[in-house]
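Hello, quick one for you while I still have it in my head. My current little project is about how a certain protein chain folds up. You're getting the sequence in one-letter code plus the fold written as tokens. Would you mind checking whether the tokens look sensible for this chain? Here's the protein in full, and shout if anything looks odd to you:
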Amino acid sequence: MIIPVGMQRVVLHPGDHYSTRETVLISTILGSCVAACMYDPVARVAGMNHFLLANRRYARNMPMSITEAGRYGVHAMELLINDLLNLGAKRQNLRVKIFGGGTVIENLGQNNFSCVGEVNKRFITEFLETEKISIEASDLGGNRGRIIRFRTDTYNVYRKYILNTATEKVETKEYRYWEHQLKVHEAEGGTVVLFTDKDKK
């Protein structure tokens, strides 16, 4: 990717999102997290988010959007979509490129963190299918972290896999964020509803 000299750059961390009409390079580093690079080529607005679904257990056999974890994923996506609509985008014109959702470190921590990448991957594909937002490119899963750079003028995305040592640092940072979000969600919602395989009907 050729980056013009002087182009404004914005770096996203877990939980962040950014939308603009301007020419900007938005970048982030992903392990288990997912980033959606979304744009309206007619209104010429674009943005990106970086999110991770935090819950102690995940449902295998129900739509992700109706689980406790999925509720926070919907919120993350709607923040980005609403920002773009406020900038003049039309929902029917939205396009997206999605990245991340890796299973990077199998045994990092406890509390089901090892399946977070798979859950994030499942959520983002289900959400976009339900909302009928066109997926123009997708690079999900795997066992390595990714650097993502998104140009808001051309909508091109540069993806680079990172070394295992760097990936471990990214995943450790995400795990700490995940633990923090668990505490925040539990404080906000009181009793947490846990969905397990026993909930199958």
